[in-house]
Design a protein that fits this description.
mainly alpha, 13 helices, 2% strand
Amino acid sequence: MPASTSSSVERFDDKARNAFEHAGKTTVYRGELLRHPVYTRVLHWAVALFFFLALFTGFGIYLPWLFRWFTPFFGGGPLSRVMHPYFGVGFVFCFGLQALNWLKPMIWTAADSRWMRNIKGVVSGEEKMDPPDTGFFNAGQKVQFWEIVGGCVVYLITGVVLWAGARTFGRIPVAVSYVLHDISALIMLGGIFIHIYLSTIGEPGTFQSMIRGAVSEAWAWTFHPAWYKQVTGRDPQQDCEEARRKMNSSTKPPKQS
């Protein structure tokens, strides 16, 4: 990205963050680190809301025999068909803002390639801590981010074709767009399931970062040690070992005299 474009994006993000920080609040307690400011959290939940609204109305359109019970929540089948593209536009727009917000930390690095080569150990839990060079986002999160970017491009192009219909683009482009639209939706849905699992059960403490905006220092040095070192100036491995020593000493029974 050109330096002028990058600086423009950063200025836009700074203004947006400042505006939302005046409207909301992020409380960071002792032993915690700021992870996501108000602006980021609002964008995240707006993206999630529009995604599931588009998903549910889409299910009612493309598989009415299976998901027709969704459509009454949106006023019936015809109204669901009308609302679906608007929900899709809302999803693409909000994610576009989120993409600008996260563009810099989502750039692929050599550390991400090493993380992917060691993905079995990270996912299986064999490694108690993520690799020491794992920054604000790990490689798995970056893969999903860029998959959604690609999915949004597909949604936008195919959505316009489907919205305008065969009279504008012809039957073959419409037929192809139906297939690409559905495949992209299924891929994204699979990624969302993985995302929900990792943000709750897979990496405990992650969900609160999008609710309160803060995470514990232990969470940070466990899953994003390079980011922890960047914001604290301390060695994550040493702090982890120090915390373990304190925990072990506090749980040892007192010596009997």
